[in-house]
Write a structure and sequence with these properties.
Layout lengths: L17 H9 L3 H7 L4 H8 L1 H10 L6 E7 L5 E7 L4 E6 L4 E5 L5 E6 L5 E3 L7 E5 L6 E4 L6 E3 L6 H9 L8 E9 L6 E9 L2 E9 L8 E3 L14 E4 L2 E5 L2 H8 L9 E5 L4 E5 L3 H4 L1 H4 L5 H7 E6 L2 E8 L3 E5 L1
Antiparallel strand pairs: 1-2, 2-3, 4-5, 6-7, 7-8, 8-9, 10-11, 11-12, 12-13, 14-15, 15-16, 16-17, 18-19, 19-20
Length: 329
C-alpha cells in the first residue's frame, strides 16, 4: 500500500498523468529506479521527494540487506564488493585509486603519493550509499551508489576556517591528521552529510559537508567535540537515524590526571540536522564495572566497549573478558 500522505505535485510525462506516473514508478525496484531518475527533471523531483521515498521503502522493504566489503586482490588492486548475507557477490567495483603530488611553497614537487600498497576502509553506515577512505592517506574519501555505480569524491581540502586557524598558529595544514569520517542522512530533508573528525596535536576538530549526486559541496568548520572522543577504524562510533555517536575517551583523561573526569561509557552525539554536539550518560552498570570487579581495570574496560546499531537502535556492547557480552539499548 502506498503512503497515505499527499502525493507531491509532478508534471505529466507525455500522455501519462502524474498520478499514474507515481504509481508506475512506485512499483519499480530501486536499482532500476536510480537509472530512471535521469530521464527528466520531473522524474528526478518525484523520485527524490520524501513522501515518494517513504512509500517506495514500504513497498520494497522485503529486499534483503547487502554488505559492502573492501578488499585487495593478489595483484594489489583495490576493489569494493557488494555481497548478500549468504556471501554471494552481487557486484564488484574496482577503485580508481589516487595519485597526489605534494609541492613546496615554490610550487616544486617534493613528494608523490599513490594508492599502490594502500588499503580501502569502509565507513560504518546503514544507507543506500557507502562511504570509503584509504588507510594510509586518510584524506581521500569517496561515496559509492551501489545501485548505479556512480561515485562522488569528497574534497580533500580542509575548511577555510580550519586552514585560517592553523595559519594563525603558524602550523601547516598537513599537521592535521584525519581520524574518521561518518556519513548519514537528515530525516527531515533527506540530505546526505558527512562528518569528519581530525586531530591537531592533543586537540580534535570537527568539519561537516552536505552533498548529493550532483554536488559534493565543501567542508565547513563546526564546534569541537566535547572532550576527547574515540574515533579511528575501531567500532567506537556508529550512525543511527541522522545522529553520529562516539564513545568518549575516558581512559586517556584518567591516565593524564589520575582522576575519572569522564564517566566510563559516556557517549558524544552529533546531530546531522542541527549540526550540534551533545553528551549521553552510559549505563550505570558500565560506569561501576571497575569498582565492582577487582580483576578489571579502566584500560581493560576501554577495550571492552564498542557501539553498534541494531534494528534502528543505538546499542552499547560490553564484551566482558571475551566470555560474555552485554548489550545496552
Amino acid at each position: 500500500m502506498s503512503s497515505s500522505k499527499p502525493r507531491p505535485a509532478a508534471s505529466s510525462s507525455g500522455d501519462l498523468p502524474a498520478d499514474a506516473l507515481y504509481e508506475v514508478l512506485l512499483r519499480i525496484p530501486a536499482k532500476d529506479l536510480c537509472r530512471l531518475r535521469a530521464v527528466c527533471p520531473s522524474w528526478r523531483a518525484l523520485t527524490s521527494d520524501p513522501f515518494f521515498i517513504a512509500a517506495h521503502m514500504c513497498r520494497h522493504h522485503t529486499a534483503p540487506p547487502l554488505l559492502a566489503i573492501a578488499y585487495r586482490d593478489d595483484g594489489e588492486v583495490n576493489s569494493v564488493a557488494i555481497s548478500g548475507l549468504s556471501g554471494n557477490i552481487v557486484k564488484r567495483f574496482p577503485s580508481n585509486g589516487y595519485e597526489i603530488v605534494l609541492v613546496n611553497e615554490s610550487g616544486d614537487a617534493v613528494r608523490r603519493l599513490t594508492s599502490k600498497g594502500d588499503i580501502i576502509r569502509v565507513a560504518r553506515t546503514r544507507l543506500d550509499l557507502v562511504c570509503f577512505n584509504w588507510v594510509l592517506f586518510s584524506q581521500v574519501f569517496w561515496v559509492l551508489n551501489p545501485a548505479s555505480g556512480a561515485t562522488i569524491t569528497l574534497p580533500i581540502d580542509f575548511s577555510e576556517e580550519l586552514v585560517h586557524e592553523l595559519e594563525v598558529k603558524g602550523m601547516n595544514k598537513w599537521h592535521c591528521q584525519i581520524q574518521s569520517c561518518a556519513i548519514g542522512q537528515v530525516s527531515s530533508t533527506r540530505e546526505y552529510k558527512a562528518l569528519r573528525v581530525s586531530r591537531i596535536g592533543d586537540r580534535q576538530v570537527c568539519e561537516i559537508i552536505t552533498f548529493d549526486d550532483m554536488n559534493n559541496g565543501s567542508w565547513r568548520r563546526k564546534q569541537d567535540p566535547p572532550s576527547h572522543i574515540c574515533s579511528g577504524h575501531k567500532m567506537r562510533w556508529v550512525v543511527v537515524h541522522g545522529m553520529v555517536y562516539f564513545l568518549m575517551d575516558f581512559y586517556s583523561t584518567y591516565v593524564e590526571t589520575g582522576v575519572i573526569t569522564i564517566e566510563p561509557g559516556s557517549i558524544a552525539c552529533f546531530n546531522l540536522e542541527t549540526e550540534e554536539w551533545g553528551v549521553l550518560r552510559g549505563p550505570e552498570q558500565v560506569q561501576m564495572f571497575v569498582q565492582e570487579n577487582e580483576d578489571c581495570s579502566y584500560s581493560k574496560l576501554e577495550l571492552q566497549l564498542s557501539l553498534a546499531e541494531l534494528n534502528g537502535c543505538l546499542v552499547m556492547v560490553h564484551n566482558i573478558h571475551n566470555i560474555s557480552m552485554d548489550l545496552w539499548f
